[in-house]
């Protein structure tokens, strides 16, 4: 039996990076990673979803939704959760995949 990497499996079933189906999958996985990172940070701080929600004026069910599916969250809400709620710092890095921007990237670190 041939062993395959995760990227090879994704290429086979979802297409290569840059295809609509694969990009959709990668975006969904990134959203799940964001939710998981929020949950892990909250747990490390021994904070309940209710406590985190109170710090950012949201409901506990909203925090649960973000942790289980980080998609459709605004950047401002993400800043609120990470910085006001968890006391952390949020860093956003945008990389452009165009030849004319070969070495350029945009970084937003300060709110």
In short:
The protein is mostly helical and 111 residues long. It has a single domain, classed as Orthogonal Bundle (434 Repressor (Amino-terminal Domain)), CATH 1.10.260. Helices cover 55% and strands 7% of the residues.
Keywords:
5 helices, 434 Repressor (Amino-terminal Domain), two-stranded antiparallel ribbon, 2 strands, mainly alpha, elongated, 111 residues
Structure description:
By secondary structure, the protein is mostly helical. 55% of the residues lie in helices and 7% in strands. The protein has one domain (6-108): lambda repressor-like DNA-binding domains (434 Repressor (Amino-terminal Domain), Orthogonal Bundle), CATH 1.10.260. It is built from 5 helices and 2 strands. The protein starts with 5 loop residues before the first helix and ends with a strand. The model has no long low-confidence stretch (mean pLDDT 87).
Total number of beta strands: 2
Relevant CATH superfamily = lambda repressor-like DNA-binding domains
Largest sheet: 2 strands, antiparallel
Q: What global shape is seen?
A: elongated
- Intertermini distance: 51 Å
Uncertain residue ranges: none
How many domains comprise the coordinates?
A: 1
The CATH architecture: Orthogonal Bundle
Q: How much helix is in the residues?
A: 40-55%
Could you tell me the CATH topology label.
Answer: 434 Repressor (Amino-terminal Domain)
Radius of gyration in whole Å, from Cα? 17 Å
Order of helices and strands: HHHHHEE
Mean of the pLDDT scores?
87
What structural class do you assign from the helix and strand content?
mainly alpha
Strand order of the largest sheet: 1-2
Q: What percent strand?
A: 5-15%
Q: With helices defined by DSSP (H or I, 4 residues minimum), what is the helix count?
A: 5
